[in-house]
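Researcher: I'm preparing a figure for a lab meeting and need a structural model of a single chain. I don't have an experimental structure, so a prediction will have to do for now. The sequence is pasted below. Please return the structure as tokens so I can convert it later.
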Amino acid sequence: MSARKPVFNQQVLYDTTPLPASIPPVKEIGATSAPLLSASFFIGARCRPYNDDFMQCKTENHGKGEIECLKEGRRVTRCAASVIDDINTHCLDEFRKHWQCLDNNNHQLWQCRKDEWKLSKCVFDNLKLEKTIPDAAKGQPPVHLRTKPIYAHYPILRDRGQPPFGKAIDPPSAQAQADAPSS
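Model: Understood. Here is the structure written out token by token.
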């Protein structure tokens, strides 16, 4: 047995070192992992230029750019917070249903596709942001639009009185084009 007694410290530690004046302050997003995962593709769609600037800064500083890249990091945080705020403003019910589904299903996206489709449609209609998966296979429906997921606990069914789903659903942008009057 060890002679050293365990010491438990329950205090929250704060770094009191002030940041340089050249770095603008930013409010944290304040969201847990489920809402961030639910909104992640939309954050990626709107904030790509800021993310690219931040990653370029980190690359140029060989991964040691904590202070040097704070300004770019703050821009990424501000952009992500604006996306979350916009989704909360325009699509709160769909957003809440989707992230609560993710929270209840261990963050497994394929368990929450029906709620995700509703959220994607709302976000596209109101914010014109669409979920796209980088490097997805061409000529096949993207994984998030497939109606028969392999690993889902239960099949994705339509609401009562509607015809069954086909192999995949159309993305919101294709649905908007189909609904638009032809000129």
